[in-house]
Amino acid sequence: MARRYGAGMRPSRPVACLVLPARRRHLVRVAAAILGPTARDEADAFASAVPLLLEFEGDPGGPIGEVEYAGQWLRDRPGSPLGPFLALFTAQRIRVASCLAADLDGRSHVDLPGHGRP
Questions:
Q1: Which of 43, 47, 53, 108 is a Cys-bridge partner for 24, taking CB atoms 3.0 to 4.6 Å apart?
Q2: Within a domain: 57
């Protein structure tokens, strides 16, 4: 009988419960490092609200959704001290989306869950 890979690895909590809060804390730390400690409260508010994904799973739409949220944040708060940080955040997410899109363009097919390989 074949053993399923990872069958003995059962985390007590879903990985998302551990990873996403850590990513949110990291965003706050980076924003505070770039902008200074006075931006920490707004950085915390942004990091708590931005719809971060655990994995993009090859879909450029994931990072683009985060870019759109950052843009909306700045439109809603035109004088936000997070402006310079969100410009870097946006640039990095656009780069990720571009790499994911390029990866999709180079494939001979795209696997769709539940539909098999074309």
A1: 47
A2: yes
54 lies in a domain?
Answer: yes
**Quick one: tokens of 83?**
């402006």
Q: Which residues contact 25 (CB under 8 A, 6 or more apart)?
A: 47
Q: What is the DSSP letter of 52?
A: -
In a domain, 100, yes or no: yes
Structural domain including 92 reads 38-105
Residue carrying structure tokens 């707004």: 42
> Whose structure tokens read 């074309």?
118
Give the pLDDT confidence of 52-81 residue by residue, as tens digits.
887 777 778 889 999 999 999 999 999 999
Contact 51, 69 (CB under 8 A): yes
